[in-house]
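Deviation from plan, reported transparently: 1-deoxynojirimycin complex.
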Amino acid sequence: MQSAISELLAQMTLEEKAGLCSGADFWHTKAVGRLGVPAMMVSDGPHGLRTQKEGGGVNESITAVCFPAGCAAAASFDPELLRREGAAIGAEARAVGVGVVLGPAVNIKRSPLCGRNFEYYSEDPCLAGALAAAYIQGVQDQGVGTSIKHFAANSQEYRRLTCSSNMTERTLREIYLPAFETAVKEAAPWTVMCSYNRINGTYASENKTLLTDILRKEWGFTGFVMSDWGAVADRVRGLCAGLDLEMPGCGGVNDQKIVAAVRAGTLDESVVDKAAGRILNIVLRHADLAGAAVGAELDLAGDHAKAASMAAECAVLLQNRGSLPLKQDQRVVYIGGFADAPRYQGGGSSHVNSFRVESALAAARARGRAVEYVEGFPADRDQREESEFLKAVEAAENADAAVIFAGLPESFESEGYDRRHMRLPDAQNNLIARVAAVQKNTVVVLHTGSPVECPWAEDVSAVLCMYLGGEGVGRATDALLYGEAEPCGRLPETWPLRLEDTPCYLDYPGDGRTAYYREGVFVGYRWYDARKMPVRWPFGHGLSYTGFVYKSASLSSTDLAEDGSVQVSVTVRNSGARFGREVVQLYIAPPENAVPRPPKELRHFAKVSLQPGEETTVTFTVTRRDLCYYDEELGDWYAEPGEYKVLLGHSSRNIPTVLPLHYTTAHRRPLTVDENTPIGDLLRDDRTASIVRTMLTRFGGLMGANGGDAITEEAGLQMMDGMPLRSMVAFGGPEAAAALPGLLAALRGAVRPREERT
Ligand code: NOJ
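Because the crystal trials were delayed, the predicted structure below was used instead.
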């Protein structure tokens, strides 16, 4: 292929090559007819196709199946489900001639307010990365490409085209990049879409560090980078940074700038060749595969059934005090407009012209359930009418159970803007409280793309979160409510008690020019755990109609060496009377150290299916990288030696099993030793600790290290912590001054890398 591409490039004019670097229109790359290079169609994405109709406007899309949106799909905690979803979307894409599906969208949910959270997976990069990789494999196995987006640090809609996401390198590396890193390394997406925003002042579309140094050189990405639609600021700068394709293409204005820059000698033509070559590589790959796809047909009815069964696997049973599952002969009242018109997808570029939408009410009626319906409140706005409220409360009082279908109206959350608060419409909160006061079997079903405050949680019996479950969500809700499907989703994000508790509450969405990510790596549960805060429902939480117990947890070794690995096993038993699915979550807790770290971080998870009484053993492989944080001084991932903990749990706050793990490594963080090095740094480093202790035995008394009678030795050492080495001279006088050079030499010898020692 490479030689074919070189040949093509050699035959192309500069204008043709520059032209290839921008779209022909909204959804196509340019063809080079005289050389037989076809155009390639791209299409949103991510949870169903939004493919422009032949001859239709940009917003007129073909009928396609709307699968569970990212928020819901992530709640499956199941890469296999994402693979299935990807495969189904990939097959539809192949049948209609799409070359690249614009997804998955893996931006981290920094605040519940981000208008686009419904499209994104998680607050946790490990979960988001594993799911993204599976989705990509699913799509690409069909011979269709993907565009993982939005690279990077695009966690708000407010001023998304210009705002700068400012953060430390550590925060970027630990939280905002790893989902991309995992997906690129494990699933090799054909393309990456850069985001609109700036990162520390530099547009993503011009960010060489991101687009070239990290993406290509470090992670080995070989596809092409496209811009988000309209994300290009300076085209030539972007090209040099590694942005290959501009979308949608601005009518060729920027192609001319590229040509002019080459002619003026300010841009090397080889840069254009590289970008055009990368685009050609994918376009030709697609053309090859498209040949094999001729005759592929859409199976919308089949995909609808798949979407409905996926929706059931994505639902999260948040609370159940016994009202669920409902029984066929119970008299149940359904309240809330979402029962009849479920909200199942979000607004903006991911909006699918859905094939068939099923409501829970229609599904219940089709199955002959004893269900009465009172609208109570509309699904599309915050409206309260006392007559409807009275009807709903009376019906609830006279029924065996009341199910309130609540959620966010479409106008509350969408691409393009953020929410200002985290509340449901007031009418809904109000009616839920009134129904709960008269009916002990009150169940709330939620249709939202992001967490909402649930002030009534303690007053209702059960809460079932469907997120935005795609067009089959009604059928899925019905099956879950009546126990014909088992709830097995887990929360991919913390549901806080209130907005004011969220990590970036004070900084979100910034001042319009800059969003300061001051919470650093403490995003989501990393924050709530570090602050030991109560939350409504924790990350990873989700109930089942059965129960699970863990036993025989073990490590293949309690010691992990730097280049080694340890197998962690645990046996999971279904201890209840029904089939169910459990998600085993493995978190790592670091040793206490000088670098502030979250108390624990998700590193692995596995979903298992078990019949009543059945058990299975789950095994994970833990390696050094699982223990690491990103050390800015080193410019690399680093795990310090010490005592780690492996936590195995049902959720981030329900951890029945803790296993100690001792990590050894010869690598140490760099430590500069001079007269100004704080004594605390030397005491904490096992290479220098004993040398400094010997010094303190001699001079520490004079420096206050023994603290005198008034304070403890520990307190004295704490006082010592920030003192520079030169303090020993200030307090110890000539004798200490004479000892200092020898001490410095000994310390420097101890910290010198092994290979430099003679
Ligand atoms: C802008 C959105 O941010 C992106 O996700 C989408 O793929 C493009 N528009 C194309 O619709």
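The radius of gyration is 29 Å. We consider this an acceptable substitute for the interim report.
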